């Protein structure tokens, strides 16, 4: 496995204040903004300098996902393998790397046009993470292995090529291939889940349709069901739209709901995600995504 974890996501927002309030008051994340004219929010959930970087802009969309390659050697190897297959991931400037608190960075696109940022050497911070809602985010296992911020589900227009990009070139193994039941007349859906070199059941998934926000959803995990319930209360009190009601997934066992962030990116907020010993795991092909709940309200 050539990717250690999904370390961060970069987001563009047309309303930074709304994202600030959403991340802080609803999700319970720590938001760092140097001053009111700062056009960037650093959003923390642990000892990383940020897990989400939200930049003011003209669109509401995902700008990119940061994949931690674990070491300089593996980072260079990944770049070389992608280059041999025709994917240019060029080393970014020191300034760009410093802005992400990483030692080295290379940015490129997968075959569906999703921006992927390969890096190594993330600098952690000793400043305590203080959640405004006393929430605790799960980003490490018992042996302190970095599980990443959670997971991202990316849209695809070239599903097979994109699958090959992550599975064969970046060596992220598929752990579940889901074709969920769809309402009559709806186009067939397929969600392909992949894991990185850590026990989180999936770190990345591909959904076989495009999406205007450039992402199907981002997932964050908290440490108790009460934290999920309290967050759901806050969502309801704020009148925010849900993309899915409370429910539990089959493959990663996540008990979660999906809320729509300002601008339209869906955030899955969950608890109880499965941690896997990959030496004793058989990838699944499934047709049912949910054990219960998760009544989806997806705009057409
Ligand atoms: Fe998810």
Q: How much helical structure, as a percent, in the residues?
A: 10-25%
H/I helix tally: 5
Structural class: alpha+beta
Strands ordered across the widest β-sheet: 17-10-11-12-9-13-16-15-14-18
Question: CATH homologous superfamily?
Answer: 2,3-Dihydroxybiphenyl 1,2-Dioxygenase, domain 1
Report the sheet-strand fraction.
Answer: 25-35%
Number of domains: 1
CATH architecture designation = Roll
N→C terminal distance: 36 Å
Query: Using DSSP, what is the number of strands?
Result: 18
Mean pLDDT: 97
CATH class: Alpha Beta
Q: Return residue spans where pLDDT drops below 50 for at least 5 consecutive residues.
A: none
Largest β sheet strand count, sense and barrel closure: 10 strands, mixed
Shape by Cα distribution: globular
Provide the succession of SSEs: EHEEEEHEHEEEHEEEEHEEEEE
Bound molecules: fe (ii) ion
What is the CATH third-level topology name? 2,3-Dihydroxybiphenyl 1,2-Dioxygenase, domain 1
Explained architecture:
- This protein is an alpha+beta fold and 300 residues long.
- It has a single domain, classed as 2,3-Dihydroxybiphenyl 1,2-Dioxygenase, domain 1.
- It is 18% helix and 32% strand.
- It has 5 helices and 18 strands.
- A 10-stranded mixed β-sheet has the order 17-10-11-12-9-13-16-15-14-18, covered by helices on one side. An 8-stranded mixed β-sheet has the order 2-3-4-1-5-8-7-6.
- The radius of gyration is 18 Å and the shape is globular.
- The model has no long low-confidence stretch (mean pLDDT 97).
- The structure holds fe (ii) ion.
- Fe (ii) ion binds at residues 151, 153, 217, 219, 268.
């Amino acid at each position: 496995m050539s990717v250690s974890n999904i370390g961060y996501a970069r987001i563009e927002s047309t309303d930074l204040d709304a994202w600030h309030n959403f991340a802080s008051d609803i999700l319970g994340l720590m938001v760092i903004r140097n001053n009111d004219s700062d056009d960037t929010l650093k959003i923390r959930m642990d000892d990383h300098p940020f897990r989400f970087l939200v930049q003011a802009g003209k669109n509401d969309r995902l700008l990119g996902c940061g994949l931690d390659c674990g070491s300089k050697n593996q980072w260079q190897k990944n770049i070389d393998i992608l280059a041999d297959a025709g994917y240019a991931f060029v080393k970014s400037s020191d300034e760009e790397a410093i802005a992400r608190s990483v030692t080295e960075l290379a940015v490129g696109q997968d075959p569906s046009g999703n921006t992927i940022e390969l890096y190594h050497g993330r600098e952690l911070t000793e400043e305590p993470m203080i959640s405004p809602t006393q929430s605790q985010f799960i980003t490490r296992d018992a042996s302190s292995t970095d599980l990443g911020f959670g997971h991202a589900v990316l849209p695809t227009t070239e599903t097979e090529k994109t699958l090959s990009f992550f599975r064969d070139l970046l060596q992220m193994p598929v752990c579940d291939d889901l074709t969920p039941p769809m309402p009559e007349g709806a186009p067939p859906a397929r969600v392909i889940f992949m894991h990185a070199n850590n026990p989180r059941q999936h770190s990345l998934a591909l959904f076989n349709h495009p999406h205007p926000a450039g992402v199907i959803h981002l997932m964050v995990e908290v440490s108790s069901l009460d934290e999920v319930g309290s967050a759901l209360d806050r969502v309801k009190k704020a009148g925010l739209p849900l993309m899915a009601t409370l429910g539990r997934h089959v493959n990663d066992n996540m008990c979660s709901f999906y809320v729509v962030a300002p601008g339209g990116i869906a955030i899955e907020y969950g608890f109880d995600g499965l941690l896997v010993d990959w030496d004793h795991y058989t990838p699944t092909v499934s047709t049912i995504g949910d054990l219960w709940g998760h009544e989806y309200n997806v705009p057409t």
